[in-house]
Specification:
Elements lengths: L2 E6 L3 H4 L3 H11 L6 H6 L7 H15 L4 H8 L1 H9 L10 E6 L3 H18 L2 E6 L8 H21 L7 E5 L8 H10 L3 E5 L8 E3 L8 H4 L3 H7 L4 E2 H8 L15 E4 L2 E4 L1 H10 L6 E4 L1 H8 L5 H12 L3 H6 L1 E2 L8 E4 L5 E8 L2 E9 L20 E2 L5
Parallel strand pairs: 1-2, 1-4, 2-3, 4-5, 10-14
Antiparallel strand pairs: 5-6, 7-9, 8-9, 10-15, 11-12, 12-13, 13-14
């Protein structure tokens, strides 16, 4: 049976390396406006390439030395846990190792190093999985984006490695300890998942056994539309109550309320809510396309907060509930609909036609209350690019 291992990644590959690496990685991690996508994906040149090569050379030297296995276990917490997890596993061409990268330069570089080395050492296909918002300098971003994206990325990988076909392992040995409860909960409520990790000073792999616990999805099912609407952005209490189809006085007693975080009267889905939503189902109502104009404007943004905000629009527009709860009541002569996120000036113009949504233009809310770009004719836009999300 093939194996799918999803591992969090910390900084031990740096802290256990040479003295110059120990001092350099922290400075690298402080850099801003670093293209993390290039660190994760680029083959030839990317930020941190020199440090990447030196750490890889360090690991390769250990690999080719006597007692290489014990040396690699000292060099990296992630490698140590994987050596134990894979020790008695018969290799399969469908094996997969996924490494969850924090939303930081050093975190992404560490995941890239461990991923590339593991691919060569274990002979298994590997992937660096970026988790936007997963950092510890901004608590709000950690909770509203990091944890939600973490849970979503994990479920995306589990969906491609179904129970009964794969041995599925969650490995939270490295990285932020704040994510451990969420990975543990997934392991407790999902079928056929091992949650395994190893302590730095331990010589034994610890595997948490699944508890006989279930969530009452029947009682929580009525919150499906509200969870969809609040998955990517804040919604008002009025909208939440409307989507739950309850009287405002009943909100505090509703069984789904613990699935939402509240900030200044605005509600967003939390980590537990993402877990429940994945179990309830997230099938989209529409295919989302970008026009040529929207695709060009999006590609020019590079790695930026603006790109993240527009990604929220593209992801959300596929759901009828999300689309309708984010319509800005602005009349347009071309028949386009303005979609509006809270707490930001970024907007999009979209056409909804049968089972498709066309994102026509990326724009902003101008100081005079209008929009910087306004569609003049539907004929100016074509279904140019099918949006499939960000890996």
């Amino acid at each position: 049976m093939p194996i799918c291992v999803i591992s969090t990644v910390g900084a031990s590959v740096f802290t256990q390396a040479s003295e110059d690496i120990k001092s350099e990685w922290r400075e690298f991690d402080k850099q801003r406006e670093v293209d993390l996508q290039k660190i994760a994906r680029e083959s030839h040149d990317f930020p941190g390439k020199d440090m990447y090569q030196r750490v890889k050379n360090h690991l390769d030297a250990i690999r080719n030395s006597p007692n290489s296995e014990s040396g690699l276990m000292r060099a990296s917490a992630e490698l140590k846990s994987l050596i134990y997890i894979l020790r008695d596993h018969d290799r399969n061409n469908n094996d997969k190792l996924h490494f969850l990268a924090t939303d930081t330069p050093a975190g992404t570089l560490a995941a890239r190093i461990i991923s590339d080395f593991s691919r060569d050492y274990f002979g298994i296909e590997t992937e660096v999985v970026r988790v936007e918002g997963l950092q510890v300098t901004d608590d709000a971003s950690f909770n509203t984006r990091g944890i939600r994206n973490l849970v979503s990325r994990v479920f995306d990988r589990l969906e491609k490695a179904p129970a009964g076909t794969y041995r599925r392992v969650l490995n939270p040995t490295g990285g932020y300890k704040g994510v451990v409860p969420y990975l543990t909960l997934i392991g407790m409520i999902e079928d056929d998942i091992e949650t395994s990790y190893i302590y730095e000073t331990s010589s034994a792999l610890i595997t948490l056994r699944r508890l006989p616990m279930v969530l009452d999805y029947g009682a929580l099912g009525s919150a499906h539309d509200a969870l969809i609407a609040a998955e990517r952005e804040f919604i008002s209490e009025e909208t939440l109550v409307q989507l739950l189809d309850i009287d405002p006085t009943e909100l505090s007693k509703h069984p789904a309320l613990p699935l939402f975080d509240v900030d200044d009267g605005q509600y967003s889905i939390n980590g537990l809510g993402v877990i429940v939503l994945n179990k309830l189902g997230k099938k989209t109502d529409y295919e989302v396309y970008l026009s040529e104009q929207a695709k060009k404007a999006f590609d020019k943004l590079g790695e930026s907060d603006k790109k993240t905000k527009y990604t929220v629009y593209f992801d959300g527009a596929g759901y009828r509930t999300w689309f309708e709860s984010h319509i800005h009541p602005y009349k347009n002569q071309a028949g386009a609909t303005a979609l509006k996120l809270g707490r930001t000036d970024e907007r999009v113009w979209a056409f909804r036609e049968e089972n498709r949504v066309l994102i026509a233009e990326l724009t902003k809310h101008a100081p005079d209350g209008d929009y910087e770009i306004i569609p003049r004719s539907r004929e100016d836009y074509s279904f140019h690019h099918l949006w499939k999300g960000v890996d």
